TrEMBL record:
Residues 1-39, 147-168 are annotated as: Disordered. Keywords: DNA-binding. It comes from the Bacteria. It comes from Actinomadura livida. Residues 15-32 have a biased composition (Basic residues). This is Cas12f1-like TNB domain-containing protein. The keyword Cell cycle does not apply. Residues 159-168 have a biased composition (Pro residues).
Length: 168
């Protein structure tokens, strides 16, 4: 389209207007697909889980950061809205969690690291209690604790069997 654009003050060519319509149509299709995928994913999560903890982040904050284009492409705000809406529609317990320090806090003891972890470091190790786990799993565990949900079994392992019952 840039090659077809007429200089300022002159009327646009028919080819430019046609290309502009094609581009608008492609963008609209991508937006509809994104919305559809978001709603389908949110519905699946809402059906599969009884309680959901979601970061209560502000998409406007991301729009002013270096991640603006990535946040817009992923439709992060729309995904959060759809997840909350579907959770309430299906009668699930949806809890919004403050996103501050989720990557710096320990999921077991709650101690906060003295410095922010670089993205290249994929394992979180607590200096207070010594627990070591993948960074994303630790953040998810911190969110579950803050939401007041039981984080046991969040690491992909089964929670311990109740007393008086043998574990399979």
């Amino acid at each position: 389209m840039a090659r077809r654009r007429a200089p300022k003050g002159k009327a646009q060519s028919r080819g430019y207007r046609r290309a502009q319509k094609r581009a608008a149509k492609a963008h609209k299709k991508a937006a509809r697909q994104r919305t559809d995928d978001t709603r389908k994913w949110a519905k699946k999560v809402a059906r599969d889980f009884d309680a959901i903890a979601v970061e209560d982040f502000r998409p406007k904050f991301l729009a002013r950061s270096t991640m603006a284009r990535k946040a817009a492409d992923a439709a992060i705000g729309a995904t959060k809205r759809a997840l909350v809406e579907m959770g309430r529609k299906h009668g699930r317990d949806v809890r919004l969690v403050d996103p501050a320090y989720t990557t710096m806090d320990c999921g077991d003891c709650g101690a906060r690291a003295k410095h922010r972890l670089p993205l290249s470091e994929r394992t979180y190790t607590c200096t207070a209690c010594g627990v070591s786990r993948p960074r994303d799993k630790n953040s998810a565990r911190v969110m579950l604790v803050r939401a007041g949900l039981d984080p046991d079994g969040a690491d992909g392992a089964r929670p311990p069997a109740p007393p008086g019952r043998k574990a399979a």
